[in-house]
Structures
1.
Amino acid sequence: MRPVAIVGAGMIPFGRRDDDNLMDMLAYASLNALDDAGLGDKGVNAVYVANMGAGMLNHQMSVASALVDRLSLQPAAAESIENGPASGGSAIKNGLLAVASGYYDLVLVVGGEKMRDVSGWRATDFVASMTHPTAEYIYGITLPGMAGMFTRLYMQKYGVTREHLVQVAIKNQEMGALNPYAHVESRITHEGIVDSWHSRVNNPPVADPLRLYDVCPVSDGAAAVILAPLDLAKQFKKTPIVIAGFGQATDTHSLQEREDPTDLKAVTLAAQQAFEMAKMKPSDIHVAELHDAFTILEIAESEHVGFFKKGEGAKALEQGKTKFGGQIPINVSGGLKARGHPVGATGVAQVVDIVWQLRHELPKDRQVQNAVNGLTVNFGGFGNNVLSFVLRRGEK
Amino acid sequence: MPIDLELESVLRPPEVPMVPYPPKVVTLANGKQMVVREITREDVPRVLEAVRPITTYERDYYDIVASRVYAELLGWYRWRIVNEFVLIAQIDGMLVGLVNSRMLNAKTGMSLHTLTTDRGLRIGSHMFAAKMEHHIEYLKQEEVLIVAESPIGFRRWMIEYGLEPTNIPHELGGALSFRLSKELYFATKDRLVVGDRPVPKELLDKAMEDIIVVDEKTVAQKICGVKGR
Amino acid sequence: MKKKIEIVAFKCKKCGKLHFPFHDRCLACKSREFDQVAPQGNAKLITFSQIFNLPWGFDNRFLFVGVAEFENGVKAMGQIAANAPEELKLGMTLKPTWDVVRVISGENVYGLKFEPM
């Protein structure tokens, strides 16, 4: 296995992109990454496309072949990778292994999702189709519903309160407002979503105890990275960012079959593997992008990856340890909560945001000073397939 | 344009007097204060400036809604619609949404449209609620007939309020109306209708001073989403 | 007419671990032989959520969905008959019934519906 670096990264603004179809978005993000790597008119050996729902949402299959054609990358090898909301992480992992093995030198990984082609309730149904077809889906369970059930247990066991969830939402939307790639541009205030009696309309329950502002938006978007062996990375113009470690683990399909349903075992294992491979520990990380599809998940994941002990994530949040400028800034991009969650794009977008952080190329109000090591967690299903990456700033 | 006053008096539908809607202020999720108030006929040309560009946006049936709103407001301005009222929402004077509706007769209201130019802050929900509040609480009507032109509208109004289906064709294209009865309104009011009165003087003065129309590019982005690579 | 509860759990013949839904191999010992076990008695509420913004196919404003554990240890998801979260408490006893939980492609789909006792 040879070390692999990210030599190009690109994204397009997330949100509702009425003028673009899925292929447009994948192409734009790919071109941004190719240009960022200085590969403008050159080819790559292989293309991995992360996408969860083109078949259901956009009535299109074989998107990787279609993308190669859009970008005139023939005869590059190409495949689409579907692994639910963890598709992005999976595609990066597969690209990474292909380069690490020595088989390919240059790989384009792009993740994208066009979710706003369908109505909100179709999109909800599409995401719910990940649940167990006969033991869960038939009951009308949704992913927010799963998260609501999880939140109720987490609150009971660890004393997490609504106020903690509100703090995650305010923090991430505050940062998202600074991010030109974020779907949600608006800051929210405590008064507007909690204190004022008007908040009963502004912030209604979505999946009790979760409310509207606890849940990420449904977005369109795409993000891409270019992978190359570290020893070739010096040929590229930007500071290489090394994929120092990765991990992936799975857990039971149904929440009720987990011995302790508040224990996100796959998150713990994926992060442990990533840290072990990188020869790092949680305290070595300077900035993290955690999969906050629901506010509770940022708190729970911050504990499961080892930043804080179980049950102490909420306290750390209260103390400001996870905010920009804190001990371990989490979701400086705004996270899924504000950047948005085009499911196939998310795992790649998290890595792109960390690449920008580690290259020190973000504006001052979002750049974590001297960040060298970063972590991502990409959470599929309701924690039944999780990927984690540890990234390290390389030498120019 | 010379007006044949005699003929005009025939063409102008007779109106029943309508009590005014008392303005209210709503605190939005972003902490901004949104003033909801009724406008007069004289305000219509300015509001039409905001509606005009939206008539071309296909997204979520905005084109149909805006075209119809344009015609309804013009109809009201030129005395061709009877018993219409228009409520607008303003943040720092900026127009962010409007609703219009009319009294079919003393008992029944005919809900026309809800149009917002800022999304993601539940402005549409607040404004629809204000419209129902006016029909039931101030105009003292027994029921309001409602249809939705977009799936979003259907989901918001029919499901959130639990409206009753009827066999009564609605004025908007003849689709069968859903009914919000007075009883249903009061049963859902606690959950769906908010706002403080009176509006503090400086806030109301600011709103009354001018109806500021957002530039077309910003509105297009709010409604049709982001562009750019 | 009251309908019989049709779900069935799977008890590993080798190590005794109880599974629901079905797995081809035991989660614990990987054995492939199971005894079918019907859920017994009432159920204890483990967790729940009142879900709004329901997926395509539901016209109601909200649904209560939760996970409960039967007296013989079978755990399963089901809909819960309730109108407000305050009516439910974790650990409370629920009476299981078998009823229409969803209509898919025009066909009634039956599943667990729990009633608070």
2.
Amino acid sequence: MKLVKTLAALALGAMAGVALSAPVLAQDGGLMVIITPSHDNPFFKAEAEGAQAKAEELGYTTQVYSHDDDANKQNELIDSAIAAGAKAIILDNAGADASVAAVQKAKDAGIPSFLIDREINATGVAVAQIVSNNYQGATLGAEAFVEAMGEEGNYVELTGKESDTNAGIRSSGYHDVIDQYPDLVMVAQQSANWSQTEAFTKMESILQANPDIKGVIAGNDTMAMGALAALEAAGRDDVIVVGFDGSNDVRDAIVAGKIYATVLQPAYRQAQWAVELADKYLKEGSTGMDEKISMDCVLIDETNASDLETFALAE
Amino acid sequence: MSSAVATAKQSSQGNTSALLILLKLRTFIALIVVTLFFAFMAPNFVSVANAIIISKHVAINAILAIGMTYVILTGGIDLSVGSIVGLTGMVAGGLLAHGLQLPMLGVIIYPNVPEVIGIALLVGTAIGAINGLLVTKLGVAPFIATLGTLYVARGAALLLSGGSTFSNLVGKEELGNQGYPIIGSGNVLGIPVSVIILVVLALIAAYVAQRTPFGRKVYAVGGNERAAALSGVQVDRVKIAVYMISGFCAAVVGLIVSSQLVASHPASGETFELNAIAAAVLGGTSLSGGRGLIGGTIIGAFVIGVLSDGLVMMGVSEFWQMVIKGLVIIAAVVLDQLQRRLAANSRQG
């Protein structure tokens, strides 16, 4: 009987492609579903890869999905995870308020959720919420920026998507430091929606209106790269650029002396930690930690940039 | 001048025709109004350097809108152009960064920059051809056919790199594939290469639309498809051709965008199709086909471009920028309707 089942599974797997047969045949501790925003941002890709590698190392099968920052799609993915009988969900959610109901639904179905990177506006719904300390990170970046600027001069801020909590937290972290220096004047502040193309276009226009800028501080690394491209196109290699995230592109730009600094969020390690906590919770019934866990960010500049690889700093 | 106004006032007929001329020139007037507004409101708006920057930003949307205008003139729509921008950028980036990998033969071929450009343009045009075949031979509505290719092309762009960016596309001397950044950031006599590409494409597109048999067929198909078919126009061929033109234009933009950033990102070009449709509509192209001019579309693209850049230079928030852009598009369509009603009335009268 068992042989027949295995053969049937193999046949089905062969029919539907090799991918399907893997979860059927693996002998495992159950299914872990990993849901993050779109992998076209290397940051979220690193999260998904970190979580997947750790979960498979611990003997779980995995399914990796992206909700593309669409709360509705996230809701459907969580329905699928419930239907698939997942043991745990690792989630970088699609919105602090919009995600509460979906996580609650998983909890009601008996599936614990472990949140990474972004919080939700409710406690007691997810088992753990591990968040990088964006505020602490922003103050680190701002301090480096202030120092590089020599505490004076005009600067531009490119902020992230204005509906995203982290965009606001990072911006206020920047300003809580920079605004203490009256000689640092923000001449333009624009949202570039985390996008490289948009940062490029807007930076070109801002440079036209304010040619006398000395620095640019961006809410993430893709916008910092877009701003850098615009500055280079205008022949401005004298402008100080600071980003946030710790991507490989910005690392290379720091090594080449084009970007001054960025702030690393340890995305890969954070996702792995969430999986470790999920494993502990499934085996022991508790993570042994508070629900809200904060991970500190690390400043990346020319002294340590070469140790950075895919959102992880070599020990 | 005053006598002209006086004669216009004498008859309501004259009044209507003056109004009609104003309405016909509405996009051009809108362009002058927004430019004057920002000249006073935005710092350093009036300068040669800024005019060049704005033209560079407009080029991206305007080139897409040229292809879009051809498609709309036949009564179709092409929603896939934004995704084609992303995909062709990724094709070019992948070829430059990792070469053409042939695992069966165990070789990696690194094409040079002109070859990379050729391949990317071919990919874009081929997707356009698929759109055209879906619409004509399989009878899929243009909205649905190109919505399908929108997803397929975007998915393919993400698959090419597993979602990551191909960065630092400067090429390597030993591979002989240097020079890619010229398309996006090169200059000839101070004019950006992308603006020159726009001017050349716009002139060709306007000439083909107004002065060639093919152009007349495009208008005929959009004006009355049955009549065109009965008078011997090969409707399917014309339609396939316009989608290929649109795919080609999208590929050009894909190359410009990735070259500007010296990086290709699989999500680039998202919602570009909507901006291109907006430029065409603002420029007076009728979504029901048969009516519109390439020149109008270009002016429409400039209205949108001057608005976006000017608002950024004034420091207006992103949210207001979206609201204002939307209101301008609605106003343009309302005026278009008004013009048509007036024109119909004055013909009857």
